[in-house]
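Hi V.,

Quick status before I head out on leave. The structure for the redesign project is tokenized and pasted below; the design run finished overnight.
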């Protein structure tokens, strides 16, 4: 799964670079779905990359509430960061849930939730893209806040 995510991320970066280096103006999408038309005019189907991997998962209980609250809180950031956060939670809700549960496990082993936020601030210092930096910090903030609400409420005030 991790290798597939890395491959998807690598391909996405390559496409972004390809698009950024192309000086042609944008045109309306002439086909349904996710695809790429290369310089030879060939259509390359990318539906496997664009389709959310977890679209069939039904989240219930605390997990479902966590995701709904995550989406709600994501909307309080800049439009670009909001879009990035919502896209990430839509394509991988179980990853967001797992990250929040890992934060609780760390907190239960002695690392405070505020320390997790401080560590993220330190990590964000190396992110040059301002939207990526805001999204990273927002994701940490949302995840820590909601983790303490849903997965480790006993640590909320520590």
């Amino acid at each position: 799964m991790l290798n597939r995510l890395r491959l998807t991320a690598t391909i996405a970066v390559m496409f972004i670079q390809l698009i950024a280096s192309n000086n042609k103006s944008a045109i309306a999408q002439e086909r349904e779905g996710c695809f790429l038309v290369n310089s030879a005019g060939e259509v390359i189907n990318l539906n496997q990359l664009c389709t959310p991997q977890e679209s069939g998962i039904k989240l219930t209980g605390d997990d479902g509430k966590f995701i709904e609250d995550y989406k709600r809180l994501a909307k309080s950031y800049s439009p670009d960061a909001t879009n990035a956060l919502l896209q990430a939670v839509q394509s991988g809700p179980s990853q967001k849930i797992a990250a929040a549960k890992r934060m609780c496990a760390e907190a239960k082993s002695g690392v405070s939730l505020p320390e997790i936020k401080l560590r993220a601030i330190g990590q964000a210092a190396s992110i040059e893209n301002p939207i990526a930096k805001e999204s990273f910090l927002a994701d940490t903030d949302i995840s820590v806040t909601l983790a303490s609400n849903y997965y480790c409420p006993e640590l909320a005030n520590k």
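Above is the designed sequence. Strands lie at 35-37, 43-45.

G. will cover questions while I'm gone.

Best,
W.
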